[in-house]
Predict the 3D structure of the following.
Amino acid sequence: MAATPGPVAVLCSGGLDSAVLLVEMARSAGRAEPVFVRAGHVWERAEREALARFVAAVDDVRIGPIRDLAVPAADVYGAHWSMTGRGSPAWDAPDEAVELRGRNLILLAKALVLAAIEGWPTVALGTLGGNPFPDATPGFFAKVAAAASEGLRAPLAVAAPYRTLTKAEVIRRGVDLPLELTLSCLRPTAAGLHCGDCNKCRERVEAFDAAAVTDRTVYARPRAPSSPVRVRRTD
């Protein structure tokens, strides 16, 4: 990964991709600031707890304290499955079913304001290769950064250094990290475990299999890989 001037704000969901990115940014830039955005989705409590456990386990002085931002979106998404937990995409659902329209726009908007105030020149996120959604393209990120720079009177950049990688490749990059502490699940259990039965759990299981790395994740319903990896949207 090319060196990025620090400190770098990293949008962290508690998921595998953003967790690995956080550590790599801390190592390359010398300082990484994890930013967790709460929008009201059903998985956020479990994700935030997973992120805290991961950061504590990594114990890197180059990683700052987790910054929590709130951007309530229930008034926008309404009764969407991501807000209610009802009808969330199951194991065999197509990857397109997990799209949340405007997700990256919502995440970046407040994070960029925080970055401008704190003097962090870059906001990074763990978007993966193959992501088909319009708010995950290099062009979109460049336009958002340009608009933010103009509106906030601060030079800002949005970085997506994993844009050409698969989840399996990210797993290999983070093989020395406690990846089992991360959470990539649409409907985690009350105890914060992966359900083992949703689209994101399938993606995770198949990515570990493709990476040939032992998956130490605890799933409430363990499932074996069932198809080639189809990586679309980041955590």
Residues 228-235 have pLDDT under 50 and may be disordered.
